[in-house]
Write a structure and sequence with these properties.
By secondary structure, the chain is mainly beta. The protein has 2 helices and 16 strands. It has 2 domains: 10-99, Immunoglobulin-like; 110-210, Immunoglobulin-like. Helices cover 4% and strands 45% of the residues. The radius of gyration is 23 Å and the shape is elongated. GO terms for molecular function: cytokine receptor activity.
């Protein structure tokens, strides 16, 4: 009997989305229904050494989160995947190389806004994996009067390398609103000072009524 091979996975891509580095693929054409997938990765500082990914061995889904698996977020890495079904398997298919620090795609933060008399307390939270919390993430915060595109104030959230624990996501910016009256909106984006300054889109605006009498 001839050597039977499974069709290899297709569209194998290492992509960054919302702070995570994820390998994705689609089933090879004509794959049996019971097919599973196994993933390994290789980094450029240890070429030729393909490392197993325990949580992506014999999985049914067509993606594998590699964010905190990559040993060095400043070195390019790639991954490969093969299909397995009973005693048959496909050839490995490799992704392109990506480096987390350079290629990470940022998502806007979720804003939490708390109005007190003459004060506005704002903090931003992020769906970050534990292994990347210590990066120097920054948040640009815009405040403007609804209906005007004039940005009244621009504050900066900065996560200090050493103080991110517990404070990192809870760092609050307090804005004095004594001089503001009416409907004001806030929006934030995340940014990372890497080789290029990179940033996410701005979050959906959150609008609040300030110093409203009546």
């Amino acid at each position: 009997s001839g050597h039977v091979q499974l069709p290899p996975p297709q569209n194998v891509t290492l992509l960054s989305k919302d702070f995570d580095m994820i390998l994705t693929w689609t089933p090879g054409e004509g794959s049996p229904p019971n097919v599973t997938y196994t993933v390994r990765y290789e980094s450029q500082d240890r070429m030729g050494k393909w490392i197993k990914v325990p949580h992506c061995k014999n999985i049914r889904r067509t993606s594998c989160d590699l964010t905190c698996v990559l040993p060095n977020l400043f070195v390019k890495a790639r991954a490969r995947v093969k299909a397995v079904s009973e005693r048959y398997q496909s050839p490995w298919v490799e992704s392109q190389f990506k480096e987390y620090h350079l290629d990470v795609e940022l998502a806007p933060p979720a804003l939490n806004v708390n109005v007190e008399e003459n004060l506005l307390h704002v903090n931003a939270s992020f769906p970050l994996a534990a292994c990347v919390e210590s990066f120097s993430w920054m948040y640009d915060l815009n405040l403007w009067e609804a209906g005007s595109e004039d940005k009244v104030a621009s504050a900066l959230f900065v996560s200090k390398q050493k103080r991110y624990e517990g404070i990192f996501r809870k760092k609050t910016v307090t804005i004095d609103t004594t001089a503001l009256r009416g409907n004001y909106c806030l929006s934030a984006r995340s940014s990372l000072q890497s080789i290029d300054f990179k940033h996410s889109k701005f979050s959906q605006p959150v609008c609040v009524l300030l110093n409203h009498k009546g």
